[in-house]
Design brief:
Rossmann fold, Arc Repressor Mutant, subunit A, DNA-binding, alpha/beta, homodimer, two-stranded antiparallel sheet
DNA sequence: CTATGTGAATTTATTCACAGCA
DNA sequence: TGCTGTGAATAAATTCACATAG
């Protein structure tokens, strides 16, 4: 069995598994059962076993899963063996926060360059990352960049994304509160904090006590 | 037909609809069809019609939807008529960014108070929001607070959440990269940027060109 | 003729139930 | 016995197909 038909829901849980297993490994833990792991990541143990089963037999009956073995496997499938370079577009409050954070912790992803429209910002360096002028974006060669993090205001998101695509970027993590209209070969994930907060308030007010999201 | 059995997926789209309709209204638009709206929010038009149908007939056949009517309706169901007060726990880079942003735009939600462990920060005011000492959290009366935004480091998230619950908070928007173990009447939504970025990288590398997330 | 509203069909995801290996 | 791996059953969400109202 190979990754030729991995359900989307499964794929979206893999990074969570990966990070959690890294944490367990750092505590010195070497094996774990699907039920113990399920409690930690708050995913039903059957779902975990099924998720792993799409990639073949990763565990051992009566034993559970070897954490290092899972990590080695997930590192490959999540392309964490090689460094994934991303750019950040929009160095406002949120963009600056992400630059300072820069996904350092056990994560082979790095913001290598940032862009901003503000001429006072371009040329500066924040947390080791140089800020370029937004006007340069579409002319740069960013074909070695896998994705862009979009932290520009809503009204600039579409045009910024188009410039990034012109420079070679194929994916976006979009923090701007708009949906982008982009070519079908471009993949976008939205991180929409306002929507999340309103959804939270909706569920709290309508009493969905049981369900934990994601 | 009332909101007595609204699917979770529908509920999670309502804030997106609401914001997008606010934007359309601000452009002076008064009516919209499900298909035109679907293109804007990137949700299939049938899904939109079905979503609205759970709340009764909000549109008119042959006409579409009256934007103001939808807005009035969504404002109620999303509890945007009254101000929703939230607190922010953890005034690091991300927390500071959220304080500066503070959900101002057409959103009746406000961060009214922040907490941080750093004694140098408590007492200060950022973007009009006062920062309190983390030690005060569990003793404060936050029963008028609907939710807390958790922007503390992973290893502090669980204990910070427990203190917030002690103070009366019932919901969390959790930015910390851990799953929280909390009483079943507490609702948590996770905003997990690292997971999102890794999922994006996964899909880009495994070629899922078609699908747009969320 | 347009565009909603909705049962029915389909697809996707989760959960059950248990066979089988260590 | 303990725990995985997986077909079968169920549940949830989406999409189809079309009747119907304006």
């Amino acid at each position: 069995m190979q990754n030729h038909k991995v359900p989307q829901a499964t794929a979206e849980r893999l990074p969570l598994y990966y990070r959690s297993l890294q944490h367990l490994a750092s505590l010195g833990k070497t094996r774990i059962s699907s039920s113990e792991f399920g409690e930690i990541v708050q995913v039903d143990s059957t779902t975990i076993r099924k998720d792993f089963s799409y990639f073949g037999a990763l565990g051992r009956k009566g034993y559970g899963y070897n954490i290092q073995h899972l990590l080695d496997f997930l590192r490959k499938i999540l392309y964490q063996e090689e460094l994934s370079k991303v750019i950040l577009i929009g160095v406002g409050h949120l963009g600056t926060a992400l630059l300072n954070h820069n996904f350092q912790k056990n994560n082979n992803t790095r913001i290598v360059k940032a862009y901003d429209t503000d001429p006072l910002k371009s040329g500066k360096v924040i947390a080791g990352t140089e800020i370029h002028a937004m006007d340069d974006l579409e002319h740069d060669d960013n074909r070695d960049i896998i994705a862009a993090i979009l932290t520009v205001p809503a009204d600039q998101a579409q045009s910024a994304a188009e410039k990034a695509i012109a420079s070679g970027v194929k994916g976006f993590l979009n923090f701007a509160p708009v949906r982008l209209s982009l070519p079908p070969d471009v993949y976008v994930r939205h991180v929409d904090m306002t929507v999340e907060l309103q959804a939270l308030i909706y569920f709290l007010n309508h009493g969905m006590e049981e369900k934990q999201s994601q």
